[in-house]
Amino acid sequence: MVQTKENSATKKYAKTGIIAAIVVVVAILGVWAVSALSGRGTVSVDKAIENVSAEAVTGADLRMAVVRMDAIQSGARVLQDLRKQRESFETRLRDELTAEQKKLEKEKAEIEKSQDVLSRDALQRRVVDYQNRVTKLQRDLNERAQSIEASFQKALAEIQTKHLDPVIEGIIAKKNLSLVIDGRFARMGAGVENLDITDEVVSALDTKVSKIKMETPKGF
Question: What pTM was computed for the model?
Answer without folding.
Answer: 0.68
